[in-house]
Design goal:
The complex is a heterodimer of chains A (343) and B (269). Chain A has 343 residues and is mostly helical. Chain A is 76% helix and 0% strand. Chain A has one domain: ABC transporter involved in vitamin B12 uptake, BtuC (Orthogonal Bundle), CATH 1.10.3470.10. In chain A, helix 4 packs antiparallel against helix 7. Chain A is globular and about 65 Å long. Chain A starts with 7 loop residues before the first helix and ends in a 5-residue tail after the last helix. In chain A, 51% of the residues are buried. Chain B starts with a strand and ends with a helix. Helix content of chain B is 35%, strand content 27%. The A-B interface holds A 1-3, 5, 95, 225-226, 228-229, 231-236, 238-243, 281-282, 285-287, 341-343 and B 48, 51-53, 72-78, 80-82, 84-85, 87-94, 97-98, 100-102, 104-105, 107, 133-135, 137-138, 148, 151-152, 155, 161.
């Protein structure tokens, strides 16, 4: 049986086109309906818009388009692309089909951090309090998992899954205790951190998403070949000049920091990091050079589209985006289970 | 020219059991060496030391007269390729993609054109042309072993280390893969399980038991009837092939049939 692969360039162009259509559409869609002409006019500014024969966008419209929806779409693309790349890296590191960015108990750690701030300390750092608390909570849980894993790494990567699960349960227990013992407001916050949302996207915070995405991409650029070596198994990877244990630790640390930053900005958007790497591998093969770039593009497209769906489904109300990705993910996992993989 | 040498290698496991006991050996360029021994003798452990995968508690390994641990990993990988035992390979890799991994050690020194040439050559040597675009998961055991060998050949190493390359293979596939290895220009050190395959392949045999080298020499000396009886508990029978006149070696377990007969006689008496 000969495998069918798609040309890398073609896949990139196709995914790029989807993004190029979906992002402006996402800017025009929402509780305030905006026409494409207005979107273009807002981008051009009043002077250029008139010279192109378009009616200039009024002030509130321009504000919605440029200060709310544009950063929202950019954030969606960065987070989606980043989470998919993290998933791809972790599936390589653990050699496990079900590895995803929230393997380290990051989601429960972030929720615990946010709820701790709400119920115990209050917003002592202004608008930054919640993201910082969520980031630190996520990093704390990830560190616990990483310490557990590096101490037992010679016993095999599947330990990571168990360690992540255990730490997840622990932080969920802490969160639930805080919610029941304290402020009921915290319950809403738990929903945000466990189901995700792009509603907090602002220009002020987008730098963190860019930093996180750049961290992933530069790691990928410098370590692409050792990552490929891991696909051959540990002993062979070593004989190819790569140190499997060292690369794994690098992957875990980079992924934990990146995911922590994403979670602090948008909460947990599940299943993107699980699904997309499988699709990317099926389309362009498992070598990282092509696979991770396709992951980034597909992941970006998926989260941008999911965000649009989450705003349309119960409009004018906004559905948490995690609900949309979870529904897609469930279908995908069922497909994965029924598909036989021969090792 | 001595390619690889080790002196007084000692390795202990976490329970302080000695797995390698002052092992010393020298391998000359161009030699085809087989390492044999009963299960648990320390063959694979020795091989993992020679490849640098494990570090010895005592002793030193030298490749081209340089300490193996002092050679940078990529440089080491340019000189030495390893075909490890039963690796978990990503099942969605195509044969060509997997073989291309063998070029990773040359990433900074070799051009894409040269890489492709080496990859194609390795695929051709191992007879994998028609499997090139198939995924690893669709291959049979023998095809998979040949793919693994092709990846090691693509590395264009001076020294090839093989850990039980004939594992899980049927009779024909075993003979085929060793014939293939025998024809390579590289120096080869292979851990082998099946004694009957050693004679055709190796010009030197190292017998290991309980972490010690018992004998080291050409097959006829290293696998003398006395040593085979002592180390493997097997009897040997040397005969001549009735048609070609080539010497043949048969290994058999001692007195097995007589024992069964006695038991039968006893039961039905």
């Amino acid at each position: 049986m000969v495998i069918r692969r798609f040309p890398f360039a073609l896949v990139c162009v196709a995914a790029g086109l989807v993004l190029a259509v979906a992002m402006p559409y996402g800017i025009a869609t929402g509780s305030t309906a905006i026409t494409f002409e207005t979107v273009i006019a807002a981008f051009l500014g009043p002077d250029l818009a008139t010279s192109f024969g378009l009616e200039p966008a009024n002030k509130p419209m321009t504000k919605i388009i440029l200060d709310l929806r544009l950063p929202r779409m950019i954030l969606a693309a960065l987070v989606g692309g980043g989470l998919a790349v993290v998933g791809g890296l972790l599936q390589t590191a653990t050699r496990n089909d079900l590895a995803d960015p929230f393997l380290f108990g990051l989601s429960s750690g972030a929720a615990a951090g946010a709820v701790f701030v709400i119920t115990v300390t209050g917003d002592f750092l202004g608008i930054w309090t919640l993201p910082i608390a969520a980031f630190l909570g996520g990093l704390l849980s990830a560190s616990v998992v990483l310490i557990l894993v590096t101490r037992t790494i010679h016993t095999g990567p599947e330990r990571l899954i168990l360690a992540g699960l255990a730490v997840s349960f622990l932080f969920t227990a802490i969160t639930n205790y805080l919610v029941f013992a304290g402020d009921q407001r915290a319950a809403h916050s738990v929903v945000f951190w466990s189901l995700g949302g792009l509603g907090l996207a602002r220009w002020e915070t987008i730098g963190f998403a860019i930093a996180s995405f750049s961290l992933l991409m530069s790691f990928f650029a410098f370590r692409r070949r050792p990552l490929d070596a891991l696909l051959a198994g540990d002993d062979t990877a070593h004989s190819l000049g790569a140190d499997p244990k060292e690369i794994r630790v690098e992957i875990f640390v980079v992924c934990a920091i990146s995911t922590g930053l994403f979670v602090a900005l948008v909460g947990v958007i599940g299943f993107v990091g699980l699904m997309i790497p499988h699709l990317a591998r099926a389309v362009v093969g498992p070598l990282h050079g092509a696979m991770l770039i396709v992951c980034a593009l597909f992941g970006a497209a998926l989260v941008v589209l999911s965000d649009i769906v989450s705003r349309l489904l119960l409009a004018p109300q906004e559905l948490p985006i995690g609900v949309v990705t979870a529904a897609l993910g469930a279908i995908f996992v069922i497909f994965l289970v029924t598909k036989r993989r021969v090792h | 020219m001595t390619l690889l040498s080790c002196s007084k290698l000692v390795f202990k496991d976490s329970k302080d059991q000695i797995l390698l006991d002052h092992v010393s050996l020298e391998v000359q360029a161009g030699e085809k060496v087989a390492i044999v021994g009963p299960n648990g003798a320390g063959k694979s452990i020795l091989q993992k030391h020679l490849s640098g995968r494990l570090n010895p508690a005592m002793g030193e390994i030298k490749l081209h007269d340089k300490s193996l641990s002092a050679i940078p990993p990529l440089k080491r990988a340019q000189l030495m390729a390893v075909m490890a035992q039963s690796e978990q390979i990503e099942p969605l890799l195509s044969v060509a993609e997997y073989v291309s991994l063998g070029r990773i050690p040359h990433q900074h020194s070799s051009k894409a054109k040269e890489d492709n040439k080496q990859i194609d050559r390795a695929i051709k040597i191992c007879g994998l042309e028609k499997f090139k675009d198939q995924t690893i998961q669709t291959l049979s055991g023998g095809e998979r072993q040949r793919t693994s060998l092709a990846r090691a050949i693509a590395q264009s190493p001076e020294l090839l280390l093989l850990d039980e390359p004939t594992n899980h293979l049927d009779l024909r596939a075993r003979a085929d893969i060793l014939k293939l290895v025998k024809g390579l220009p590289s120096t080869v050190i292979a851990v082998l399980h099946d004694l009957s395959l050693v004679h055709d392949f190796a010009d030197r045999v190292i017998v290991v038991r309980q972490g010690k080298i018992i004998s080291d020499g050409p097959p006829s000396e290293s696998l003398s009837p006395a040593i085979v009886r002592d180390v493997f508990g097997m009897e040997t029978l040397d005969v001549l092939h009735p048609v070609t006149g080539k010497p043949l070696r048969v290994y058999e377990a001692p007195h097995l049939e007589t024992n069964i007969q006695t038991e039968k006689e006893f039961t039905y008496a």
